[in-house]
Amino acid sequence: MKKIGIGYENYKEFIDLDMYYIDKTMLIRDIVEKGGKVTLFTRPRRFGKTLALSMLRTFFEKEYDYDGNVVDNRRYFEGKRIMEADEKILSMMGRYPVIKLSLKSAKQPDFYTAFMKLRDEIIGEFRRHRYLKDSEKLDEGQKKKFCGLMTDTEDWTAGSFESREAEQEAFRKEVARYSTALKTLSGCLKFHHGEDVIVLLDEYDVPLENAYYKGFYEEIVGFIRSLFESVLKTNDDLAFGVVTGCLRISRESIFTGLNHLKINSILNDNFSEGFGFTRKETEQMLINYGIESRIPEVKDWYNGYLFGEKEIYNPWSVINYVDSVAVDRAKYPKPYWANTSSNQIIKDMVWQADEDMKKELDELIRGGTVEKKIHEDITYDDIHESEDNLWNFLFFTGYMKKVSERQVGDDVYLTMCIPNREIRSIYTNQISGWFDGIVKGTDRTEFYRAVLDGDTGRIEDYVSDLLEQSISTFDSQESFYHGFFLSLLYGVPRYSVRSNREEGDGRSDIVLYPNRPKDKAIIFEVKVRKKFNEMEDGLEEAYRQIRDQKYEEGILDDGYIGSVSYGICFCKKACVIGKLPE
Question: How far, in Å, CA of 120 to CA of 153, rounded?
Fold first, then answer.
């Protein structure tokens, strides 16, 4: 079996190391034939965008080795689907100068550090084309400018200025200098090669999302806007450009005046197979690794995306799953994708949800749908300005899936659901953490008094009031209510709480054991019902279990002076509690 390239993003490494590769090379042809002057691909994280750009660069670039010799990359495409393309496409192999830049390193705590990381990336791209400094086709002015941008000077950095104002001015000049650096590089490349330049920009929105949460959004937007405008808009040396990210940032924010930009999002049919795995590709991979019996499990956990009208699986989760299960058949599915990036937007949504949104989240997690107006123009700084913006963000970044759509005038409305079990686990984990925070942050003094006084009415009111603040995601799951009530009991004065401990002939749900010999133990048996009119029946079942399993006798056998027993029954956001009749 071939090695699975988890964490590999360089196309050449997949071929050189003979790793398992699902052939996406026809994306090359599709970009030439269907792409725009600049094509923006928006897809969720970890859906193969970086690998795709690496593959594009390998195909198109006229590349040089360290000795200045042209590299023949044809071997990297032997046996691949792109070799079936017509002569026009194949004649483009190894023909163009290419600029490739990733912006993901700019995920930093402040603008200074973010800019410095981007500056390092740009300098690295200049150094990759260092043969230009010896080019006979560039004049001395071009070479001087090229070498200046390729050199990592430190003479302007912090600590080398007489005043803070002088330092800030020097920094502003450095930002301005590198905001047009890619255009300078493309001009030098065009002079040397005599061919227009292909520009590949990856993860363009990573620094924007990070800056939004870190508080320097406007600064990073200004720099990236200038960078993009100079190399993608006002650049006569551009053959074509490809930009990737998760979210389309509105033209007013980043792509100002970029009228030749062609957007391809998950709503579009073109390029629908270029990112992510199709059903056929996923199933074939499982067959190749001898785990075809797990196809239904993979579908349940990692399928559910719809790009255009094409059913797509999450590639990152699939390869991690196959890598794990192919070695150990006892392994079970995990939310691999959920752990690769921040789920801050889900956390914000849950923690700030009003009653209407809580009901919608309830419906979604139960397998239902919501209908929302969808538009592709959005900026990070207005995500929380309206509920529509939030749902748009969730949809385009992979947390929701289109079920159907309808148009009302100029507006498009999508009916959406949660794509699969993996994404559902993200929502439920955030909801669970949010509710735990509410419980832990609540003053339980009155609750403790009610428990010690045996005041069932006050216990009911306290617990029901807390549940009123919750999202009813876990209705009918006794384990949730059991854990919730157990967590409330930690801290009852003079008592220690235990769960599912053997007493009598069975295991009682929850017992408060006294720290003093004169106090009685307190037993709680938890039941759940789906309908309010069944809650009294739930109490009766709890009473019968306490009696039949002889929990109170077990307490006496443990050496305590006695016990008092309660049944508690939950239904949705309400509870009833009763004391075991004498």
Answer: 11
